[in-house]
Specification:
2 copies of one chain form a homodimer. Chain A is an alpha/beta fold. Helix content of chain A is 44%, strand content 16%. The first copy, chain A, is built from 12 helices and 12 strands. In chain A, the strands form 2 sheets. Chain A has a 6-stranded parallel beta sheet with strand order 2-1-3-4-5-11, sandwiched between helices. In chain A, β3, α7 and β4 form a beta-alpha-beta unit. The interface between A and B is large, with 54 and 53 residues. The first copy, chain A, binds a DNA duplex (30 and 30 nucleotides) through α2 and α4.
Chain lengths: 329, 329
DNA sequence: GCGGGTCCTGCAAACGTTGGTCAGAAGTTA
DNA sequence: TAACTTCTGACCAACGTTTGCAGGACCCGC
């Protein structure tokens, strides 16, 4: 309590407040006395009272479908890191499922706080819906996987379309006739890695196989791998993420098709285990931690200056390791 | 603002407050009018004002060394899930390094909020320091990896000592003469998986090799694997976590020692990729998500009833897959 | 030594809720 | 129909801070 400090220091409450906020000059003599009293009492300002009167908010909420999967967790880490450096607290709310009540629940919880702003991790279609259900008055920045044209809310994104294109061109460049694709669920139809893969094939004038739709998990990659293994024409596979890639590779090797000698496999994300796989996984590295930092940076600037930030993009990078090779002739 | 709602509904501010808090009965007629006004205006109570006057807090902070590594992220997920269900918001603060200023920074940020309580993820030695620097007045529960005797603060833990013991006995039971161990950094000397491994060897009356000390990462497992591979007497290795295990396996196979035919490897944690490895990894599964839920449950009960909770424990479970086998005769 | 200016300090009013107290209305019983 | 009980609704203080305003102390130059 400010009044206890004031009493111990023998000054008025407002002087203590001024010393602590630092906005108004206070004479060195009183300042020292106040600081001594503060540390003697171990005083901590009451956050509720502060935001009530000053309107200053210093927590930002993160809404995400998941916090465990690598991309989400890494983005969250980046956000937290940047927020902590800037003196903001970050709170999290996961949107459990597609069910409207789960969305409402998460949004309610988030809005029940006194927020400076919010970040939604828009790596999936639920993210898009989440973004829409937040009030317009709240500054919200989205951290997105795929590039998209500027919309009502600012986005920081990873240009995974460019990544998909690059990886596909790389496989084609190795001499493969075409590239198969095991896709993660996509946010919107014409964006993302799948679209990049498609464009690369088209601009190379090459036959485009059907997309094998999967989820995010290795199991689902394994299923896909089984159907791929059954088709002798398959020599190169681009997977929507690294988990899918290891599932695919597992199925392939179990069916006696060697990677990369008979089939090349490329992943996406460059999760920590990717380089430890056997063979070490060639994959498209996405810097999620940096995405998180950037997203928070945009939000903080918005909140502090009042200027709505521009979208920001970063290009993923192909990391060549050993799971892809030229086809056997 | 409550007054806007009151005006629109044609009632007094306190009536609106009564309707919203629900503590005092209000006639159905007015209640409906108020609720209509609330939804028309999209009114949300001001959280700062509420906690200021009522003293009710509904955010819990989580302090952790890391949020990306599997065990931490999964624990966090469990905490968040339970908290959301109970209507609490969770905020996170990572303690970046051993440096005191990083600890202070995180603790300051956490304490700058109006907290109901806090949880520290005590999987490492920094966790125990964090626990110590939180004020005694704040309800704090620790989520710990290793069993420990009851201390000043309540703990929820995973009994990884039992897990380490079981895994070691399993390898011995397969016929291995002894079991080598690649250890993660430990919180305290006589606890955890390493201690379990040691006890299992001792009670089997078997020679105990030196511990190979590693960090948490595959690279460090790889280093360890290299020294293990050079020693022909090594036939079974228990690793402190799954990342270490894959690093070890990679080094082993690179050096021409086949897993599990020549060397058996067992991991710890059962991360999602473990069952997709080749060979699928035999490992000690720890339910971190459940640990998180339990920890939050303890904290919530404490906060709500005022009774300090008892420690709670869960035993990990050995998941037998294909990376361990009887030694060649 | 005095007027004018510069700093500093303290008083008091907010910020948006909650919840206790009290008055008045409605319902019930004799 | 009067008196009594039981609710319902209005008013107001309080929560712990920040900050505009005004007055007090001190310093400088004339």
């Amino acid at each position: 309590m400010l009044s206890d400090v004031a009493q111990l220091a023998g000054v008025s409450i407002s002087t203590v407040s001024r010393v602590l906020t630092g906005r108004t000059p206070v004479s060195p003599r009183l300042r020292d006395k106040v600081q001594a009293a503060v540390s003697e009492l171990g005083y901590r300002p009451n956050a509720a009272a502060q935001t009530l009167v000053s309107g200053r908010r210093s927590t930002v909420a993160v809404l995400a479908r998941n916090t465990l999967r690598y991309g989400y967790a890494a983005t969250l880490q980046g956000i937290e890191e940047a927020a902590r450096a800037a003196g903001y607290v970050v709170s999290i709310a996961v949107v459990e499922s597609e069910a409207p009540r789960d969305l409402d629940r998460a949004v309610d919880l988030v809005l029940s706080q006194s927020l400076a702003g919010a970040i939604v991790v828009e790596f999936d279609s639920l993210g898009v819906r989440t973004l829409e259900s937040l009030p317009d008055a709240l500054p919200v920045v989205a951290a997105a996987g795929a590039r998209r044209r500027p919309g009502p809310r600012p986005h920081a994104f990873l240009d995974d379309q460019a990544g998909g294109e690059e990886a596909t061109r790389y496989l084609l460049g190795l001499g493969h006739r075409t590239v198969h694709h095991v896709a993660i669920p996509s946010t919107r139809p014409r964006s993302g890695r799948t679209w990049g893969w498609r464009r690369a094939l088209e601009s190379a004038g090459v036959e485009r196989p059907d997309v094998i739709q999967a989820s995010y998990d290795p199991d689902s990659g394994y299923e896909a791998g089984l159907v791929l293994a059954a088709d002798p024409a398959v020599t190169a596979v681009l997977c929507g993420n690294d988990e899918l890639a290891i599932g695919v590779m597992r199925a392939l090797t179990e069916q006696g098709r060697r990677v990369p000698e008979e089939v090349s496999v490329v992943g996406f994300d460059d999760q920590p285990f990717a380089r430890m796989w056997s063979p070490p996984l060639t994959t498209v590295a996405q810097d999620f931690v940096d995405l998180g930092r950037r997203t928070f940076g945009m939000l903080a600037r918005w909140v502090e200056t009042g200027e709505r930030p521009e979208d920001s993009a970063a290009k993923p990078e192909l990391v060549v390791r050993e799971s892809a090779a030229p086809p056997r002739v």
